[in-house]
């Protein structure tokens, strides 16, 4: 069903009065947009740069220019200087690797409005009339948005301080000048998402301390930059992403951007031509007040994020943490209750971290970040240790610091210090349960197993959820054996999007070809709750849970019991029949998504999985057939690599897997 057909169907399902009101509201909105476009075409939205001639931010930045030499010494001592300079030089040459593109030279003029992976270009027009998603077009709007976030500027700044080479300052100026010229306010695709406007503003501000004293940058540039930054604040305040069914990471980004802009401009007020959209003092007050509220809307009591995605948990935690630190450096503080919930967000990340230091990418993942202050060209999307290092300094916790070892640079730039780990304590992590978020971790000395069992994102809306109930990841002796398939892409390929969030590619059970939660083919961010998964029992070595995804469709509840032993994992899947029926037993399949690189041998009911230093044997009891299929695993947005999937078939209502390692 097309998007238009879906909208028509929903209108027809509404009561007549509600449908008529929706049509009238839409007509009024379109008229307002037409008038707005007419006004902008006659008089573009600008502020005279000279209004900012005397402006100099009095706020404290995350980066302290007075510590320039100290930063340089640490970077050199840590052996990071060459990588930083290499990344910065590549960006100066306009070579970028964004969202799975691989290294691409983007030409002398950066394609701010183009998905350079496909060549599709969005024309400059009123932002409300730009069609950012067309499921019949393979273009991905996230590509120009990602480039226009300017998260590479921090790397420029570091290289500039390391080398004193003015080419970095000149490139910093040239890129921002070019972007401002080619992206009139409200008149390009890069104004169509307030989240990206906010992230861009924060990254421009974060880069200012590096270049503010550069002799290559005239005062006129700073006046122009400040005028545009101010208009970013006006735009965000007037386009908050809080009008839908739920707030989420987009709204958090809006608020973080308003706080950054409010801190930056402080009590500065325009003497004339004050645009609608509040003042910097109001942005700061509103942003902090709303962030305090959103901490308890979006973050569950156990510290998990209610979008049911570990990747979005990382993004939201980063925006909360960076904003909190930025405010504290300026003498502004959130409540103790807020800080405790923020600390719990990082306790959750610590608890689900695998022995290899990486984190399962459960649910959606789009590589979203707020500020990228280290390893711009090489950061690993499933590595959350950069946040643990920062949290270790902010909360003064050695367990966070120990988890973040190797990410000292992030702590240096954001928290402003790096303290040695004084006491690591017991290095063997314990099993842990996060019932609010729906994550359960079984641990032994040699094994790690994360199980997904809980509510879909946004309290059942499922925007960033996958059909992964009772699916699991298994890591043995530090080696990934069974993994989540990842996300791959969103709107650029709706069929691939639906494949990567489908039941069949997750390590769980499927009846016939039914989905746990129904997928609407062209509605990519809706997965209405049908599973209602529950954990029945959990101990250090045992998990038992169930979901109802097949109850109304086939009359069964899926139950899974998992017992972690010293050198093995026993899994029992049971299909519990609800009601009386003479129908034959359904066809049942269980998938095991293998980590890329795992070598597979075996036949019939006995299989062996081998990877570096680890051999895992699996025996199936109650299976009729076990087959090996080619599959894909995505470790980052826009990329996928070949892997394999074991798929077990049976008509028995119970199946047992004995997984042993040596």
From TrEMBL:
Principal cellular location given in the protein's record: periplasm
InterPro entries for the chain: Chondroitin_lyas, Hepar_II_III_C, Hepar_II_III_N
GO MF assignments: lyase activity
Record-annotated Heparin-sulfate lyase N-terminal domain positions: 125-379
Compartments (UniProt record): Periplasm
Coiled coil: none
Pfam families recorded: Hepar_II_III_C (PF07940), Hepar_II_III_N (PF16889)
A Gene Ontology term for the protein's cellular component: periplasmic space
Residue ranges of every copy of the Heparinase II/III-like C-terminal domain listed in the record: 430-662
Alphabetical UniProt keywords: Lyase, Periplasm, Signal
Protein name: Heparinase II/III family protein
């Amino acid at each position: 069903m097309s998007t238009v057909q879906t909208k028509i169907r929903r209108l027809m399902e509404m009561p007549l009065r509600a449908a008529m009101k929706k049509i009238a509201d839409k007509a009024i909105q379109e008229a307002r947009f037409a008038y707005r476009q007419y006004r902008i075409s006659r008089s573009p939205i600008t502020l005279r740069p000279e209004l900012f001639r005397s402006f100099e931010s009095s706020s404290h930045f995350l980066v302290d220019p007075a510590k320039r030499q100290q930063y340089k010494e640490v970077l050199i001592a840590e052996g990071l200087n060459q990588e930083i300079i290499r990344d910065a030089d590549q960006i100066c040459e306009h070579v970028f690797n964004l969202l799975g593109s691989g290294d691409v030279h983007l030409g002398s003029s950066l394609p701010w409005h183009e998905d350079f992976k496909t060549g599709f270009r969005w024309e400059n027009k009123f932002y409300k009339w730009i069609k950012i998603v067309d499921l019949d077009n393979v273009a991905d709007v996230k590509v120009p948005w990602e480039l226009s976030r300017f998260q590479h500027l921090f790397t420029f700044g570091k290289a500039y301080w390391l080398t004193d080479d003015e080419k970095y300052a000149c490139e910093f100026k040239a890129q921002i000048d070019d972007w401002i010229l080619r992206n009139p306010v409200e008149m390009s695709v890069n104004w169509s998402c307030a989240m990206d406007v906010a992230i861009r503003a924060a990254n421009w501000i974060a880069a200012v301390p590096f270049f503010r004293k550069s002799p290559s940058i005239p005062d006129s540039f700073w006046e122009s930059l400040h005028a545009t930054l101010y208009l970013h604040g006006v735009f965000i305040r007037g386009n908050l992403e809080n009008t839908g069914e739920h707030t989420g990471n987009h709204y958090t980004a809006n608020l973080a951007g308003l706080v950054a802009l409010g801190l930056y401009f402080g009590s500065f007020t325009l003497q004339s031509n004050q645009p609608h959209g509040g003042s910097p003092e109001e942005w700061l007050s509103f942003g902090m007040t709303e962030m305090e509220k959103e901490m308890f809307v979006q973050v569950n009591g156990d510290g998990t994020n209610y979008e049911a995605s570990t990747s979005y948990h990382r993004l939201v935690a980063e925006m909360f943490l960076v904003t909190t630190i930025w405010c504290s450096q300026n003498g502004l503080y959130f409540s103790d209750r807020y800080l405790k919930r923020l600390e719990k967000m990082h306790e959750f990340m610590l608890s689900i971290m695998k022995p290899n230091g990486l984190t399962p990418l459960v649910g959606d993942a789009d590589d979203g970040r707020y500020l990228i202050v280290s390893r711009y060209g090489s950061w690993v999307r499933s590595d959350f240790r950069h946040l643990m290092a920062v949290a270790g300094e902010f909360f003064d916790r050695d367990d966070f610091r120990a988890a973040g070892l190797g990410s000292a640079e992030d702590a240096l730039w954001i928290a402003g210090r790096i303290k040695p780990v004084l006491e690591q304590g017991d290095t063997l992590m314990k099993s842990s349960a996060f019932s609010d978020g729906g994550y359960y971790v079984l641990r032994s000395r040699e094994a790690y197993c994360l199980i997904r069992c809980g509510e879909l994102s946004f309290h059942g809306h499922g925007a960033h959820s996958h059909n992964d109930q009772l699916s699991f990841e298994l890591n043995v002796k530090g080696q990934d054996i069974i993994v989540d398939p990842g996300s791959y892409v969103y709107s650029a390929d709706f069929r691939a999007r639906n494949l990567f969030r489908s039941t069949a590619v997750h390590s769980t059970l499927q009846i016939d070809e039914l989905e746990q939660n129904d997928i609407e083919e062209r509605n990519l961010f809706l997965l209405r709750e049908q599973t209602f998964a529950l954990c029945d029992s959990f101990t250090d070595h045992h998990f038992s849970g169930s979901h109802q995804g097949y109850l109304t469709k086939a009359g069964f509840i899926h139950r899974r019991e998992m017992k972690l032993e010293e050198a093995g994992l026993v899994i029992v899947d049971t299909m519990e029949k609800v009601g009386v029926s003479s129908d034959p037993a359904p066809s049942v399949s269980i998938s095991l998504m293998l980590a890329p690189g795992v070598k597979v041998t075996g036949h019939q009911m006995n299989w062996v999985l081998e990877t570096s230093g680890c051999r895992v044997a699996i025996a199936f009891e109650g299976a009729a057939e076990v087959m090996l299929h080619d599959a894909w695993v995505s470790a980052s947005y826009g990329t996928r690599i070949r892997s394999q999937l074991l798929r077990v078939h049976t008509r028995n209502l119970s199946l047992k897997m004995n997984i042993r390692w040596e």
